[in-house]
């Protein structure tokens, strides 16, 4: 785990039982829906096919929402954790067969670095960038900007930590309380253990994606019209234009 620039936390119990997130964090499913809605909004502006790169496609929850948003969207879904991506390949086989979905198993930065500048209309993601170590995330943001066509959008539904650190801590504590209530009731202490451990990584100083700093980083990368909306506790939707 230490010789990679990211925490491969999705290979074990979390990855195998990822659908449990729907139980302990229904808001995250809603955020994937919001990412799809924003993709649909972008597509209304254009009549041609829309190339989209998805970062951290996971088991395919966000990917499905994106594919359903508009039939002109073609997705390249990037995820470097086979436990997660294999599930997406199974769930979304029909979309791949229809030629609307391809997969890449590289990590986000490596995948982006291999892509041409000004080559895609959209980059979309949910609950992935907050997992990145801060310096890695900065490089990813720069690469997202580079590969987007002028006028292209970056859409990210994610954990954007509250600027008010005390409020953020309270919100996170409430979240953990919810994990315990739900997962002890169904006797899944193994899943509980892994999500609590995972939260420590999310909240670590070199990972946490605090709202003002994150939006400033995007502005520094060149993004315009940066907008944060749909905030639900520590989660929010961010859109930005190249
Ligand atoms: C919390 S899941 C989100 C999955 C999906 N978007 C959703 O909302 O359900 C985060 C995903 O990001 C992937 N991931 C984490 N770090 C990554 C990296 N550096 N490059 C590519 N994928 C990464 C993980 O493997 C995992 O599948």
From TrEMBL:
Residues 53-152 form the Methyltransferase domain. It comes from the Bacteria. The keyword Methyltransferase applies. Keywords: Methyltransferase, Transferase, Ubiquinone. CDD domains: AdoMet_MTases (cd02440). GO terms for molecular function: methyltransferase activity. SUPFAM superfamilies: S-adenosyl-L-methionine-dependent methyltransferases. GO terms for biological process: methylation. PANTHER family: TRANS-ACONITATE 2-METHYLTRANSFERASE (PTHR43861:SF1), TRANS-ACONITATE 2-METHYLTRANSFERASE-RELATED (PTHR43861). This is Ubiquinone biosynthesis protein UbiE.
């Amino acid at each position: 785990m230490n010789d990679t620039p990211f925490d491969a936390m999705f290979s074990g119990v979390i990855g195998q039982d990822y659908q449990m997130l729907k139980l302990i964090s229904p808001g995250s499913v809603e955020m994937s829906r919001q990412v799809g809605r924003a993709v649909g909004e972008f597509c209304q502006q254009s009549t041609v096919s829309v190339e989209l790169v998805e970062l951290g496609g996971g088991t395919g929850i966000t990917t499905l929402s994106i594919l359903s948003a508009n039939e002109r969207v073609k997705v390249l879904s990037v995820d470097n954790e086979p436990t997660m991506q294999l599930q997406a390949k199974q769930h979304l086989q029909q979309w791949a067969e229809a030629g609307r979905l391809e997969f890449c198993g590289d990590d986000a930065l490596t995948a982006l670095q291999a892509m041409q500048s000004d080559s895609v209309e959209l980059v979309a993601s949910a609950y992935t960038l907050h997992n990145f170590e801060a310096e890695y995330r900065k490089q990813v943001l720069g690469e997202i900007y580079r590969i987007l066509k002028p006028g292209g959008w970056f859409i990210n539904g994610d954990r954007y930590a509250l600027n008010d650190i005390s409020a953020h801590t309270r919100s996170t504590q409430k979240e953990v309380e919810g994990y315990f209530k739900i997962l002890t009731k169904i006797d899944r202490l193994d899943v509980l253990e892994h999500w609590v451990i995972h939260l420590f990584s999310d909240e670590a100083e070199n990972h946490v994606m605090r709202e003002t700093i994150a939006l400033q980083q995007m502005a520094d990368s060149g993004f315009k019209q940066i907008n944060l909306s749909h905030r639900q506790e520590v989660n929010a939707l961010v859109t930005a234009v190249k």
